[in-house]
Design a protein that fits this description.
Blueprint lengths: L1 H12 L5 H30 L5 H10 L8 H8 L9 H8 L2 H24 L5 H8 L7 H19 L4 H17 L1 H10 L9
Pfam families: Dpy19
InterPro entries: Dpy-19/Dpy-19-like
Subcellular location: Membrane
């Protein structure tokens, strides 16, 4: 309950102060949530005496060079090709189906929109005029689009580090690329950026 009170107090204060002040509060808030999550996880594991995911942490520690491990399960994963890095020929195979190009196109547009919207939301009232100009070349990033943008980036990092996890990324790539290519908001954003926007063209 104490953690929840701290989180809510930080959320209320996120909209106060200038850009750097808000950004600092946001980073502190994210770090606090991550630390509390890890502490609660460790606490529950100690109480229930759970060790089911210990080998995963040992595998990750050994995989990224933070020390060797004598754990059998972790070493077994290290020997498997499926748990290695994603091979580069994956991108050429994805490009042959034109999926990768569509995905990169949509990912670039949505990332730019997310950065602009985040900057606008974190900016103070003294930058309203600048943000009104930025509004002309962007759309409001909807929560569902932002959620899927974060997911596809995280799935991509997971697939790059562990080849077996590419099944999560490739399926999400299809969904994300099709959303972007069929979304009027994405085309509206693109046409506004190149000053060719009309409702008929969209």
């Amino acid at each position: 309950s104490t953690g929840i009170v701290i989180f809510f107090s930080f959320q209320k204060n996120l909209k106060k102060g200038g850009l750097l002040n808000r950004l600092g509060k946001l980073i502190l808030h994210v770090l606090l949530v991550l630390c509390c999550t890890l502490l609660i996880n460790k606490f529950i594991q100690k109480i229930l005496n759970l060790e089911s995911d210990e080998h995963i942490f040992k595998f990750l520690k050994a995989k990224f060079g933070f020390g060797a491990t004598r754990d059998f399960d972790a070493n077994l994963y290290l020997c498997e090709e499926a748990f290695g890095l994603l091979p580069l020929n994956t991108f050429s195979r994805l490009s042959d189906t034109l999926l990768f190009y569509a995905y990169i196109f949509v990912l670039f547009l949505m990332t730019v929109a997310a950065i602009i919207v985040a900057f606008r939301n974190l900016s103070g009232s003294n930058q309203v005029q600048f943000m009104e100009k930025m509004e002309e070349c962007t759309v409001t990033l909807k929560p569902d689009a932002a959620y899927n943008l974060i997911h596809t980036v995280l799935f991509g990092c997971l697939a790059l580090s562990t080849m077996r996890m590419k099944y999560l990324w490739t399926s999400h790539m299809c969904v994300f690329a099709s959303f972007g290519l069929c979304s009027t908001e994405v085309w509206k954003l693109l046409l506004k950026c190149i000053h060719l926007y009309t409702s008929q063209r969209v």
